[in-house]
Amino acid sequence: MPDYSRRKRGQRPTRNKMLIICEGEKTEPMYFGNYRTPQNNVDVIPIPSSRKDVGSIVEFAKKKLQDLDIKGGDLIWCVFDCDDNTDDKISTAYKNAGKSINICLSNPSFELWFLLHFSYIETSLQNDGLIELLKRQIPEYCKNIDCYQILEPLTDTAIKNSKKLEQLHINNGTEINSTKSNPSTQVYKIIEVIKQFNNVPETK
């Protein structure tokens, strides 16, 4: 990855930075890397963490806050899958993140965000079943391919479906930031922040 820590005093770029600390090393960084363009009004910087435990990801993000000169107006997100994280671990991570670090949970995994570009589903999923459903839409899908060009035209559909799912859990009294919120994904929040920087209206 490029060394983003080399910015010197007096050379701060006009764009704010959005660091996205990713649990995965391929799928998430590859997807968010498509938002790192000169046309965006925020510099989107995906960083793989090689960590599975949400607590470790938050600690990694705190270190990046210091290393990369994150200041007011810059943003940092931690993106992770539910996987083997327990409710206690997730709750503790949210508390440790505080106000300076944003958390983005996908349950069971990030691929749910991809699937919601094509269809709405509220049945609880395991990862194997999720990938099987996704391959019905993208037959060549695997973690090594960049499917952004297929997904991008359907982004508003994915946001709407994600919000609909979230509202379903809220109406059922389910804690969103927990293992019980299967299926759900908060990736839409990151995409909407990027849209806000670009003055694109929020998806209803």
What does this protein structure show overall?
The protein has eight helices and five strands, in the order βαβαβαβααααβα. With 204 residues, the chain is of the alpha/beta class. Strands 2-1-3-4-5 form a five-stranded mixed beta sheet, with helices on both faces. The longest helix has 17 residues, at 155-171. Residues 1-10 have low confidence and may be disordered.
Short key terms for the protein model shown above:
5 strands, single chain, 204 residues, alpha/beta, five-stranded mixed sheet, disordered N terminus
Helix content: 25-40%
How does the overall form come out from the CA principal axes?
A: globular
| Class from secondary-structure proportions | alpha/beta
Helical segment count: 8
Q: What is the string of SSEs from the N terminus onward?
A: EHEHEHEHHHHEH
**Total DSSP E strands:** 5
Tell me the distance between the termini: 35 Å
Low-confidence stretches: 1-10
Average of per-residue pLDDT values: 90
Order the strands across the largest sheet as they lie in space. 2-1-3-4-5
Characterize the biggest β-sheet.
Answer: 5 strands, mixed
Integer-rounded radius of gyration: 17 Å
- Measured by DSSP, the beta-strand proportion falls in 5-15%
Secondary structure layout plus pairing:
Elements: E1 16-22, H1 27-33, E2 42-48, H2 54-67, E3 75-81, H3 87-97, E4 102-107, H4 111-115, H5 127-137, H6 148-151, H7 155-171, E5 184-185, H8 187-197
Parallel strand pairs: 1-2, 1-3, 3-4
Antiparallel strand pairs: 4-5
